[in-house]
Amino acid sequence: MGIVEIQQLTRRFKSAVAVDSLNLVVEAGEIFGLLGPNGAGKSTTIKMLTTLLPVTSGEVKIKHCNLTQNPAQVRQLIGYVPQSLSVDGSLTGYENLLMVAKLYNVPRQQQKTRIGEALAYVALEDASRQLVKRYSGGMIRRLEIAQALLHQPAVLFMDEPTVGLDPVARNALWELLKKIRTQLGTTIFLTTHFMEEADYLCDRVGIMHYGRLVAMGSPNELKASISEPEATLDRVFIHYTGDNLEARGNYRDISQTRSTARRLG
Ligand SMILES: Nc1ncnc2c1ncn2[C@@H]1O[C@H](COP(=O)(O)OP(=O)(O)OP(=O)(O)O)[C@@H](O)[C@H]1O
């Protein structure tokens, strides 16, 4: 039995099917990546899995808890780092975490310790009293992860975690996610359109196209599946979707980086 179990998950927007009969099991302790071009249905999937978007049909269980029947219980079991900004630039890092601690009813006498531990875990202790609008993109992402982990969830969902980060910040984030999985045992479910990220970080990858899962396996299994010598995950992606993801990445990165900068002032 997996920690995330998805059966025939479907989401329609009027007549359009954004997610089409998705079946997927993610095992405890796995780093699982959902890969796909813009519009493939990745965000819609992750929004349903995090209870933010109603399911049209199908069933999801997180740690055996039925998502549509017990959304509040599921929210306690999961953490979520969305694609859009989830911190307040006009507060300090500490204040952002305090707000989340209150939101999740972390007992008052434990709040300071938990926040201190979370800040240390994501290497933001020294910056904890600075306003978040002074943080770099990498620091903001790390703070968002600290927020999402504060109530000690079993599964951490992340929508395109490294979009807009420079290579150094991106590598630091990858190492942080590996540390979270190894040391805390947290299962990580992320979406990405970066092949390198999926290859380096994910134990298994599902390739989504037009709302359907068109391929699934470890990066090495997927590379072996297309019978091309020295296949890269890029080639795998093009093979299954006919799409060149990296060519689309540039515009998205720039627009995301700019909108983050704009929103933080
Ligand atoms: N609120 C909505 N109303 C109508 N259609 C929507 C809505 N949200 C998403 N869609 C459509 O559902 C499909 C899947 O979109 P989704 O955002 O899940 O894709 P994605 O793979 O996450 O893409 P991206 O990489 O751009 O985030 C798209 O065709 C999109 O236009």
Automatic annotation (TrEMBL):
InterPro entries according to UniProt: AAA+_ATPase (IPR003593), ABC_transporter-like_ATP-bd (IPR003439), ABC_transporter-like_CS (IPR017871), P-loop_NTPase (IPR027417)
Classification via Gene3D superfamilies: P-loop containing nucleotide triphosphate hydrolases (3.40.50.300)
Pfam family membership, one: ABC_tran
Protein name: ATP-binding cassette domain-containing protein
Database matches in PANTHER family: LINEARMYCIN RESISTANCE ATP-BINDING PROTEIN LNRL
Highest taxon of the lineage: Bacteria
Biological source species: Euhalothece natronophila Z-M001
Molecular function per GO: ATP binding; ATP hydrolysis activity
Domain ABC transporter: 4-235
Record keywords, A-Z: ATP-binding, Nucleotide-binding
